Amino acid sequence: MIEILVGLMLAMLTSMLTTSIVGTALPTIVGELGGQDRLSWVASATLLTMTASTPVWGKLSDVWGRKLLFQTALVIFICSSVAAGFATDMTWLIVARLFQGIGTGGLAALPQIILGDVVAPRERGRYSGFLGSVFGAATVAGPLLGGFLVDSPLGWRWCFFITVPLAAVAFVVIQRLLKLPARPDVAHRIDWRGATCIVGAASAVMLLLSLGGQEFDWASAPSFALIAAALVLTAAAVLVERRAHEPILPPHLFRNRTFVLGALASAAVGMSMFGVMIYLPQYLQIVQGLSPTASGLMTLPMVLGLLAASISSGFLVSRTGKWKLFPVSGTLLVACGFTTLTFLDTESSLVLVGAGVCLIGLGLGMCMQILILATQNAVDLTDLAAATSAVSFFRNLGGALGVAMFGSVMTNRLHDELNAFARSAGASGGSGEMSGSATGSPDAIRALPPEAQHVVIQAFSDAMHTVFTLGVPIGVVGFVIVLCFKPIPLRSGRG
How many CB atoms lie within 10 A of CB 387? Predict the structure, then answer.
C-alpha cells in the first residue's frame, strides 16, 4: 500500500505543480514568445479544462476502470507538458496548456477515488492526509520553484519539463503495483449528453471568472453571454441527468446532506486557499518590498502548517473514527488566520505574516481531505467516483471564484485609494501614472518618485487589508457549513 500511495502522491504533485508553478514564469514567457494580449490564457487554460473535466474523469473510471483512466491521464499530462516546454509561440503554449488541464483533472480526482477503492473509510484518513499535504504544499510552493527555475540557467521551459519525470515514475509504479478488484462485467452506457452539458456549463463559468474584469468588463456583452450560456447549460444538464441511465453527476447525490455540505465547504476551502496563494505575494513584494524568492519563502509557514495538520488529523481520524472536529476546527483556524492578516500594514513585522499564514495552513490541512473522506463515507460504493470528483470540482470552482472575487475587490479598492489621493492633491494626471504603475510590476512601482511610491504602496496596503478582511467571512461561512454535518461513523469495510 505504501508503494501505491507514493505513486498517487507523485501524480498529485505533478498535477498541482502544473497549476501553480507557471505564474512566476509568465513575464519571462511573454518576453520570449510575445502575445501580451493573451497572457491571461496561459494561466486560465489549465484551470478551465481541469475544473470542467473533473466530473467526467470520475464517471469514465466507473466504465473503463480506475487504473486505465489514471494512466491515460498521466499520458495526456506527460505529452502536453513536453509540448508546452517546446512551445515556440503563444498559440502553441495555450493549446498545450488546455490539454495539460485535461490530464490534470484526472490526476486531481482519480487518486482519491482509487484510495476509496482499496482502503476502508476508517483507515483512509491516515493515507488521505498524505495526499492532502501534497496537494496543499505543491499549490503553495509551486511559485517558489517556478521563480528558482526562471532565475536558473535551466530557464522557464523547465517549469513544464520538471514534472515529466515525476509523472513517468508514477505511471511505472501504478502499472506494477496497483491491483484493483475485478470490476463486474456489466454493459455501461456513457452519458455523453450529460457530460457535454456539464463541461459546457463549467467552462462558461470558468471563462467568466478567469477573464471577467481582465479581457472584458464584468458588465459587458461577453459577460452576459457567458452567464446566459452557463444558466442554459446548467438547466439542460439537470434535465439530461435526471433521465440518463448512468448520469455523470447523479441527481440523487444532491439529496445526500453530507455530499451537499461537503461540496459547499470544499468551495469555501478553495476560495480561501487560492485567494491567499495568489494575493499574499503581492503584499509581500509590493508593500514589504521582498524579492519573489523571499516572498515564496514566506509561504513556508503555511506549507508546514498544512503538512502537519493534514497528516496528523488523518492519523487521528483513523485512530478514533471521529472526523467532524477537524473541519470545524480547521474552518475556525482559517477565519482566525485571515483575521490576523487584517492587522498587516506597511510597517508590519514578517512574524505577523508568518503567524497568519500558518493558521490558514493549519486550518486547510484539517479540512481538505477530511471533507472528501466524509463524503465518500456517506455515499454508496457505486457513487464513490462521482461524489469524489464532484467535491474536487466544487473546490476548484470555489478557488476560481475566490481569485476573481478577491481580485475585483483589490482592484476597486486600489483605484479608489489612488483617486482619493488625486482629488486631495488636485493632481488627476499623477493619479493616472500611479494607477498604471500600481497594476504593473514591483520594479515599476519602485521606479516612481518617492512621494508617489509611498502613495501607491499605502494604497496597496489598504487594498490588501480589504482582501484579507473578505477572507474572514468566507472562513466563518465554512465554519457554519461544517457545523451542520451529521457525524456519521466511519465504515470499516471498503467503499
Answer: 27
